[in-house]
Amino acid sequence: MEEIVLAGGCLWGVQEFIQYIPGVLSTEAGRANGTTNTTQGPYDGYAEAVRVTFDPHTLCVEALIEHLFEIIDPYSINQQGPDRGEKYRTGIYSEQAEHLTRARRYFASRADAAQIALEVLPLTNFVASDEEHQHHLSRYPENHHLCPIPWELLHRYKR
């Protein structure tokens, strides 16, 4: 098992989509690279993100990024759909340097590399979101109108 953290705007949609990809073992919604260890208080620089535990024998870092690109605008800075602000930035975060190297190499191999706006940084802090945000769209599908990703796309890999 390996872990990587993916930020793609609204964490509800990212978690709903990513959890069904073959090779993903678990997901946890949260906040990446903020300066505090709490979900309470003022904004502390975090990005809304999802910690993904995956089987590297089934799913590689590059494939995870390709899947993330299915649901985000990789060229947008601090905005995904109607969600705007620094906390909605896109990014790849990991405690494993190899994951970051592979992400950078993957971006560099693309024809659109110069336009890709995802940050690729070491994971310095991850704070799990409150329970109400964990698997939110699975538990409250009626809130899908708050997510800019089409429902059919969110469930492309659901079995």
UniProtKB/TrEMBL annotation:
Family annotation (Gene3D superfamilies): Peptide methionine sulphoxide reductase MsrA
Catalytic activity: [thioredoxin]-disulfide + L-methionine + H2O = L-methionine (S)-S-oxide + [thioredoxin]-dithiol; L-methionyl-[protein] + [thioredoxin]-disulfide + H2O = L-methionyl-(S)-S-oxide-[protein] + [thioredoxin]-dithiol
Keywords on record: Oxidoreductase
Active-site residues, Swiss-Prot/TrEMBL: 10
Domain Peptide methionine sulphoxide reductase MsrA, first and last residues per copy: 3-143
EC number annotated for this UniProt entry: 1.8.4.11
Listed transmembrane segments: none
Signal peptide residues on this chain, from the entry's feature table: none
Protein's job: Has an important function as a repair enzyme for proteins that have been inactivated by oxidation. Catalyzes the reversible oxidation-reduction of methionine sulfoxide in proteins to methionine.
Record family assignment: Belongs to the MsrA Met sulfoxide reductase family.
NCBIfam families: PRK05528.1
PANTHER family from the UniProt entry: MITOCHONDRIAL PEPTIDE METHIONINE SULFOXIDE REDUCTASE
Name the UniProt record assigns to this protein: Peptide methionine sulfoxide reductase MsrA
Organism: Vibrio zhugei
Organism phylogeny: Bacteria, Pseudomonadati, Pseudomonadota, Gammaproteobacteria, Vibrionales
Gene name of the encoded protein: msrA
